[in-house]
């Protein structure tokens, strides 16, 4: 039996198809929109980042990373989705904090006199 045939039998097995039609698969797949959007937003202006929402998503991803390992069977796809989201949201959080608290442009705006 060829290596390709063994691989094809494994990929197209009843177990694989059964897994593809469960929420254990489709939940994380549909949830991947959040980290993909966060990764695509890394190049956008930091003024558009919501600090409270980013903080919430950081906590949310940590909680669901833990949940994905607590369920039986362990959901590695869900874990991976939230691990990617955690990294992306932390990057957004650092960008937000840098822009609002540590950037030189922001410090100059706070010091400059307001003209009515």
Automatic annotation (TrEMBL):
It comes from Candida tenuis (strain ATCC 10573 / BCRC 21748 / CBS 615 / JCM 9827 / NBRC 10315 / NRRL Y-1498 / VKM Y-70) (Yeast). GO terms for biological process: pyruvate import into mitochondria. Its main location: mitochondrion. This is Mitochondrial pyruvate carrier. GO terms for cellular component: mitochondrial inner membrane. Belongs to the mitochondrial pyruvate carrier (MPC) (TC 2.A.105) family. It is found in: Mitochondrion inner membrane. InterPro entries: MPC. It comes from the Eukaryota. It is a multi-pass membrane protein. The chain crosses the membrane at residues 48-67. Mediates the uptake of pyruvate into mitochondria. Keywords: Membrane, Mitochondrion, Mitochondrion inner membrane, Transmembrane, Transmembrane helix, Transport.
């Amino acid at each position: 039996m060829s290596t390709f045939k063994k691989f094809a039998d494994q990929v197209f097995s009843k177990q694989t198809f059964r897994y593809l039609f469960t929420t254990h698969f489709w939940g994380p797949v549909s949830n991947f929109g959040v980290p993909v959007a966060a990764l695509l937003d890394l190049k956008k202006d930091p003024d558009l980042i919501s600090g409270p929402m980013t903080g919430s998503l950081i906590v949310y991803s940590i909680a669901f990373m833990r949940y994905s390992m607590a369920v039986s069977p362990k959901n590695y796809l869900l874990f991976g989705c939230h691990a990617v989201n955690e990294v992306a949201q932390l990057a957004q959080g650092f960008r937000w904090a840098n822009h609002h608290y540590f950037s030189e442009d922001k410090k100059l705006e706070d010091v400059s006199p307001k003209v009515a």
